[in-house]
Design a protein that fits this description.
about 40% helix; 7 helices; Rossmann fold; globular; 2 domains; single chain; 7 strands; about 20% strand; alpha/beta
Length: about 200
């Protein structure tokens, strides 16, 4: 994305295609609050200043399996180091849909672990005003009584990862680490679980 106008246009296009705000935030790698601002500002219904957020475009990695495999190996290397320090293991790698899945699949292969897929609530379409709830896909590994690590692409507010940790904890998993490409929150832990990243963005203002 080159500028804010491009982000507004893309957010509007995604909304017109039927995506909900959580799905748009996933596509643009920005917070849900930023998506709301982009949409209302594009429609000229808001004069509020833009939220303090950073849009992350990692499509040059995502469109190449070769590049993805090397980035995944770097994540796996960091995880080996983290798990060695904490003397923990890994039975299952949990990928967060959608953008965390390619990375999780390759990390699971590197770590000789099973693969689970979690779809967060922000990806769910709601009916009748009901609150959406995330879930694990039954087509992949179960997490009960297993040591798990979570893989996603970008941490923005951390809410999706907090939700994932809570869900896995409720379903009997032991969560040993979270690994992401880019941490925009600049945190060392989420919901008590250590976070490792290839890049950490820290605001100085």
């Amino acid at each position: 994305m080159k500028n804010i106008e491009t982000l507004m246009k893309k957010a509007t296009e995604l909304k017109a295609e039927g995506l909900v705000e959580g799905q748009i935030s996933e596509e643009l790698n920005v917070s849900s609050e930023t998506v709301t601002w982009l949409l209302t500002h594009a429609e000229k219904t808001s004069t509020a200043p833009g939220p303090k957020d950073i849009s992350v475009d990692w499509s040059m990695i995502g469109k190449s399996a070769f590049r993805l495999s090397h980035i995944s190996q770097a994540l796996s290397d960091i995880l080996y180091e983290t798990l060695d320090v904490t003397e923990c293991g890994v039975d299952v790698v949990v990928g967060i849909a959608l953008s965390g899945l390619p990375l999780a699949s390759m990390v699971a292969s590197d770590l000789a672990a099973e693969l689970a897929v979690y779809t967060p609530s922000k990806q769910m379409l709601t009916q009748g005003g009901k609150k959406a709830r995330g879930n694990l896909s039954s087509n992949f590994s179960d997490v009960k009584d297993k040591e798990c690590i979570i893989i996603d692409d970008v941490v923005t507010s951390g809410r999706t990862l907090e939700e994932t940790v809570e869900y896995l904890d409720e379903h009997g998993a032991k969560i040993n680490a979270i690994a992401v490409l880019i941490d925009k929150k600049g945190t060392d832990e989420i919901a008590g679980v250590p976070v490792v990243s290839l890049l950490k963005v820290i605001r100085v203002n």
